[in-house]
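Subject: sequence -> structure tokens, single chain

Hey, anyone have a minute? Need the predicted structure for the following. Not urgent.
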Amino acid sequence: GESGVAPTENGSLQPERAVSLSGYPARMDDLLVWGDVGYDDYPDGVARAGGCALNVAVAAVREGRGLRVAVAGALGEDGAPLRARLVREGVDASALVSLAGPSPRQPIRLLAGGERELRGYRPGVLSDYQPPGELRARLASATRVYLPLFPSTLPWAHEAAAAGANLACDLMDLGELSPAEEAWVLERAEVVFCGVDLDHPRLPALREWARADPARALIATFGRAGACGVLRDEEARVPAAPVPGGEVLDTTGCGDAFAGAFLARWGSGAGLRASLEAASEAAARVAAHVGSCP
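Reply:
Had a minute. Here:
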């Protein structure tokens, strides 16, 4: 069964042994998020729930009004609180396998203005994770599969594409993949996210990529400068939403929250601008707290 472990009063998650699950339920996911679920280690000594997949999935289910959201990936022996957190939020964690070893960890250093420095990422059990064969059917049946793309997760995108999944891929700052790898993604993705500066030299080409096929969408975030989306002949630009309380405490996970909220709204039938606005508001709510998934 699932652990009922709750965070302590200071928001930390006390590790305990995870439960291994062997099968997936027979259901179709509206959004399957495939990536890392782990701990963010802060200088105050608190280990907070984080990881791209956890952040995106939680944002999507909060925004989605009944959207069926699942996470795939791997947890270590210390991952039961993370699984429990997902389940409490309403995320299906049955495709998240448990392996011997530690869960992924990301040390975070907070800088002025809520900016952060990420260093020394430790993938833990993800280093040995091999997608189970039964995941392919889950990938094929999902309405959309979201993947944060790094060299280490690109093989997962190949698996998802081979299964016939509709891909939503996050290319991060457009610096993680080689040109050939990025070209492969652009041939197969339906939605592409990136987080860049307004004047990034690659943006014009990505805009044309989105306009060339009515099934494609480009979503680019610009931090405090807002975001834009390109879908068919439509292009929408929205400002960054005000941060509740007026102070940016931590920008960790803001891009993940944006992606999850956008996919939830857009997948539920909202228009491009409305989806961007909801996503910007979700990111702003995260920035008002310390931790990527408050």
